[in-house]
Write a structure and sequence with these properties.
The chain is α+β, with helices and mostly antiparallel strands. The protein has eleven helices and 30 strands.
């Protein structure tokens, strides 16, 4: 069977980036990925070993799917905003195809050409490989990896309820979900999907496209509907709900409940995975299809305001340094140059290394936290983690299937970095609405440098848990402090101070006072950061909120102020003054 040949050939599969209790693949022990620069083959022993591994694979299987990156990709400057000219891309690919016409028929078959990058996927045999090596028209060859899919109300944990209350809900922006296909008619996601596309692969008899009619690429309504092959087919619907779900009469909300969704199905079917002694069908995504999907998202940049791409899938590799030699970095860079950020789940193997492709430096690698702001015990978390977000026991939209294959729309709890990543993708859509002029680098800075710091007990690494209110520079809950200045004549004088913590500069304050903690009176409105108050045998309560360019923040908690000088002799009282 094909899955046996894939195991021996060294293709890396991935674990489900949902809960780690999912059945493991028999291919987990696969060797390192096959990827090498063609011009290194003569003098680099590592490249020679990769080439030999590819030859052995071709000899076993007779035909192998590869990714081919053409020479102009070697020194690309996409992050500097220098995007490839699509006409030059087409010309470079055409020149390579003309060269390959000399290869005997049946030895080289193109699967797909990218529209925006000089890259293509193709099936080849050994004569075609030899022609490529001799051509000097290919920069890098890689065998695509195969990846599998990795709201208890968690959105208040990241302060999304506050951004919603302030009117920032992701309207006018979209999140692209690259996954198993969204159930578009689910009430939590109804009318939210504005674009659908599907990419799939047909490889031998063991891997088949789940696109309509078995095509390897298809678009239009229904093209990316939720697959029905396995339990993993509810994955995209759950992820999409976390990022942008909303429904009338349902209190549950996604992080960006007014954002649109770009639904791109990237998973193909495969047979088989062993669950105990039973072989079952499952879903996987070929790396080449993910690259195709990223290229497609870039093509949509001028027709849909896409804020982020979410990939909740990954491999069994664990990286503690960036994997920027991988071909998938180029389309991520291209998207970044268009201010579209790629958010990727970090993986669920309790490792200090993150999985591919979250190891790419231009991806945001997201690890999972629990409600008590500790790292989920199964979450990958290490030096390449960029952001932490809630990923444990997350309640969101889902689907299941009755005996007659009827799709039922439900809500379910799931755990995994798969659930953490869409919190961040939805947050990016909200930030785009709050700050339209922010670049991707600015968004990344505030995501990574605000929120509660969490330190791992196992490796001592500290990263911050997503806090959308702080990242958006909204006025946060004020910090109120008080210092006793004097105790005289039977009264106490306090210096009451307040500040906005890490939030953006506050231009005005609204401070309330109460004698019972229930009935409040307006005590101070205006600029400044403090006021004096004198008490005489009484207890008062203080609360405050701040205003900046984005609106009013949330009220602070209530702070009691009690006179400690009730037994002092009476006399005239000092006067209160504002400052």
């Amino acid at each position: 069977m094909l899955f046996r040949s894939l195991a021996s050939a060294g293709l890396l599969w991935v674990l489900l980036l949902g809960h780690p209790a999912a059945a493991s693949s028999p291919l987990q022990g696969a060797r390192e990925p096959i990827s090498f620069r063609v011009d290194n083959v003569q003098g680099d022993p590592a490249a020679q070993q990769k080439l030999q591994a590819l030859r052995e694979r071709i000899r076993r299987e007779g035909e192998t799917l590869v990714l081919l990156a053409l020479p102009s990709m070697e020194n690309h400057r996409y992050l500097e905003g220098i995007a490839p000219d699509v006409r030059q891309v087409a010309a470079e690919i055409s020149s390579f195809k003309r060269h390959m016409e000399s290869v005997p028929s049946g030895n080289f078959r193109i699967k797909r050409e990218l529209a925006n990058l000089p890259m293509l996927s193709a099936f080849l045999t050994e004569p075609a490989l030899d022609a490529i090596l001799a051509s000097r028209q290919v920069w890098r060859i890689a065998v695509p990896r195969l990846l599998k899919p990795h709201l208890a109300e968690t959105t208040p944990r990241v302060e999304a309820n506050l951004t919603r209350a302030a009117g920032y809900r992701g309207a006018g922006h979209s999140v692209a979900i690259l996954d198993s296909g969204i159930a578009n008619s689910h009430p939590f996601l109804s009318q939210r999907v504005i674009h659908e596309w599907c990419f799939g692969s047909n490889v031998g008899t063991g891997i088949w496209s789940l696109c309509p009619g078995g095509a390897e690429s298809a678009g239009g309504p229904g093209a990316a509907s939720a697959c029905t092959l396995s339990a993993d087919c509810d994955h995209a619907t759950h992820v999409a709900g976390i990022a942008a779900g909303s429904a009338a009469g349902v209190s549950l909300k996604g992080v960006a409940p007014e954002a649109h969704l770009v639904n791109i199905k990237i998973f193909s079917g495969y047979c088989c995975e062993l669950v105990g002694s039973v072989a079952v069908q499952g879903v996987l995504a070929a790396e080449n299809d993910i690259i195709d999907a990223l290229d497609h998202v870039y093509s949509l940049r001028n027709t849909h305001s896409i804020a982020a791409v979410n990939i909740s899938a990954g491999s069994i590799e664990h990286h503690t340094t960036h994997c920027d030699d991988e071909l998938i970095k180029a389309p991520m860079d291209l998207l970044r140059s268009a201010n579209i950020m790629t958010v990727v789940a970090a993986g669920n193997e309790n490792s200090s290394g993150v999985t591919f492709p979250s190891c790419v430096s231009t991806a945001l690698a997201v690890s999972s936290s629990r409600d008590d702001d500790t790292i989920s015990t199964w979450s990958n978390y290490g030096p390449l983690t960029d952001v932490i977000a809630p990923g444990q026991d997350v309640y969101s939209s889902s689907v299941n299937f009755s005996a007659n294959s009827v799709m039922n729309y439900v809500y379910e709890t799931k755990s995994g970095t798969s659930m953490a990543a869409p919190h961040v993708a939805g947050a990016i859509a909200v930030l785009r609405g709050m700050h339209p002029t922010w670049s991707a680098s600015t968004v990344e800075y505030w995501l990574k440098n605000t929120g509660k710091p969490i330190t791992s007990a196992s490796n001592g690494i500290t990263r911050r848990r997503l806090d959308l209110q702080e990242a958006g520079r909204m006025p946060g809950k004020p910090v109120v402090s008080r210092a006793l200045l004097q105790c005289a004549f039977g009264a106490a004088t306090f210096d009451i101070n307040w500040n906005a913590g890490d939030s953006a500069p506050v231009t005005s304050w609204d401070v309330d006072i109460s004698t019972n903690g229930t009935t409040w009176a307006d005590w101070y409105n205006g600029a400044g950061s403090g006021k004096l108050i004198t008490l005489n045998n009484t207890t008062h309560y203080i609360r405050a909120r701040g205003l900046n360019s984005l609106g009013w923040g949330e009220l602070s908690s209530v702070h009691p102020v009690q006179d400690p000088c009730a037994d002092a002799p009476g006399g005239p009282l000092p006067q209160s003054s504002a400052r």
